[in-house]
Amino acid sequence: MKILVTVKRVPDPETIIKIGADGAGISTDNVKWVINPFDEIAIEEALRIKEKVPGTEVVLVSLGQKTSQEQLRTGLAMGADRAVLVLSDQPLEPLAVARVLAKIVETEKADLLVMGKQAIDDDSNCVGQMLAELLGWPQATFASKVELGADQKSAKVTREVDGGLETVAVPLPAVVTADLRLNEPRYASLPGIMKARKKELKEIPVADLGVDVAPRLKIVKLETPPKRTGGRKVGSVQELVKMLHEEAKVI
Amino acid sequence: MGNVLVVAEHLHGKFPKTTLVSVAAGKQAASLAGGKCIAAVLGQGIDGLANELAQYGVDVVAVDGAPFAHYLADAYTAAIAQIVKQKDVEIVVAAATAMGKDLLPRVAARLGAGMASEVTAIDDARTFKRPMYAGNAIATVQIEGSPRVVSVRTTAFDAAAKSTQKGAVEKLSVTPDANSTRMQFVEFAETKSDRPVLTEARIVCSGGRGLKNGENFTIYLEPLCDVLGAAMGASRAAVDAGFVPNDLQVGQTGKVVAPSLYIAVGISGAIQHLAGMKDSKVIVAINKDEEAPIFQIADYGLVADLFKAVPELTEEVKKLKSA
Hints:
The complex is a heterodimer of chains A (251) and B (323).
Chain A: E1 2-7, E2 9-11, E3 33-35, H1 37-52, E4 57-64, H2 69-78, E5 82-87, H3 94-108, E6 112-116, H4 127-135, E7 139-148, E8 154-161, E9 164-171, E10 174-178, H5 190-196, E11 201-205, E12 217-223, H6 237-247
Parallel strand pairs in A: 1-4, 1-6, 4-5, 5-11, 6-10, 7-10
Antiparallel strand pairs in A: 2-3, 7-8, 8-9
Chain B: E1 3-7, H1 17-33, E2 37-43, H2 47-54, E3 59-64, H3 73-86, E4 89-95, H4 98-111, E5 114-119, E6 121-124, E7 127-132, E8 137-143, E9 148-152, E10 169-171, E11 184-190, E12 203-207, H5 214-228, E13 231-234, H6 236-240, E14 261-265, H7 271-274, E15 282-287, H8 294-297, E16 300-303, H9 306-322
Parallel strand pairs in B: 1-2, 1-4, 2-3, 3-10, 4-9, 5-9, 12-13, 12-14, 14-15, 15-16
Antiparallel strand pairs in B: 6-7, 7-8
């Protein structure tokens, strides 16, 4: 079977984010870039399926500037077979990203799409669901467990939802989006890194796909949220309770 | 002039507070858009729910039938899209709960609509505020065209109250197309708890890696929750380590809470955790590491061994309550 996994280049989650001078984006000075953590989990899940189902091909897809090569190479070093990078200088909104990916999925004829549930930069949590709809496929988002049917024609997916765990069954092809507890992603091995250099990484300019990527969502302004003023310490549990009762009046 | 459609989520025959919050946000959007606020309720045997919803002063469209007995993204999308077309809907709204997050992007794709997630403010009928980068930036976004889709962050709006003007209830029959009936519900393993729901509680006590194991959540944190009438939460580290179930996770990718009082026990305060609780009214941190970042945002910090401080706190609160 063929599994497509999406990979986004994002600032390291531990990075302190500063708003750029233009007020429309973040300052990228001194930012360390990584694979979106949820996408790493998605790659790992695809690799685990590949290990169980002989003949499986894992193809990574990213959308962004040439610099995203770095994250794709890391994914290839983890064990993916090849990668496609759709080049766009402009950041695209979720629906445009989903349309671009739908086009790639059509050419690649994938059986399963594994994606991160959200990118930790714009926190939209949209593309997987949108892509499923555009393709007319079922979706199983926020997955914590994926069980493929013996014939690889269906999957049973456990999802992290409010108040517990929900299980859904979907026929393939389908979109699965990964939540934190799905697996623990592996590190790339040194031989993996050496091999990754020789793996195919195809670049396609977004304009060549003939997809409508016109923005419908515009960031008018980006601001730093008001800072919380904390930092006060109390000396004992008794003092804490007194403060909460008499000063804050919350207990 | 366009209407606003709110997708009203329900559980066990009731509307959770998050749904009432989405109704309030929908009403606000409708008044800005100059249209009506309509609420959609989907399910099987939902006459009672539809009537209850109408008491919040919104017209209700009830989609009743076997394909909607359990929430499934594909069938629900088909129904919502049909209502949007029939009711001249300009803005689709739902709470940014697990269901809302799963459903709305799919609806947006079907409608070819622009979407904004986790909206915290509605400036006008097409301008919204939403957090990005784990809440470290607040974006003002404008959505072009119609319809538009927004999920609303449930801590950012007040819940709707019942109105003296009851809305009309209309039943709509929907047969989802073949592409929209592929998903199948198998089971829901519910986490049972007698404590308040995390997203509705006035007080939340959360535990982190500092508690060391799941048993200590039971021994130390639960009695504190019980004496305060608080909901229990956890940091991602505690959930990842398997101490507590996933639906207790507070943070960027878990639940976002803003109670009157948030007590963080043995939580260091990673950026992604702060994103889920920094709008709480009063924050208390108990941690033995005085350098822990959580203290920078805590209104009251106590540098102490939690295994001594938490039982002591439980006792002191008990004394206070019985005084």
